[in-house]
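re: that chain from earlier
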Amino acid sequence: MIDLKPVFLKKVKSILAGCMPEFDVLVYGSRAGGAGRKYSYLDLVVMSDKPLAAARLEKLQAAFREARFPFRVETVDWAATGANYRKEMKRTGVLIQVTRKK
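^ sequence. v structure.
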């Protein structure tokens, strides 16, 4: 369960589909477990096999800033994280975007 109001969930999904359509994306942390509060961060991880170009990640982050959500959105590149962090993201993660891989 992703702890977001439907209007915010729809907007987040739209931004992800526009900026990172080819990647699965997980929500992890408090908003993934239903323990999020009104101003809790939305923690997202883009499930990339190779590190994303800095410009690409910045474009995603800019889209979230421009959306002016009443909470902060943090984005992480899966390929650029360490094993312990990945373990925690997998443990708490909930898919918000699933791609159709050919």
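The chain has one domain: 6-97.
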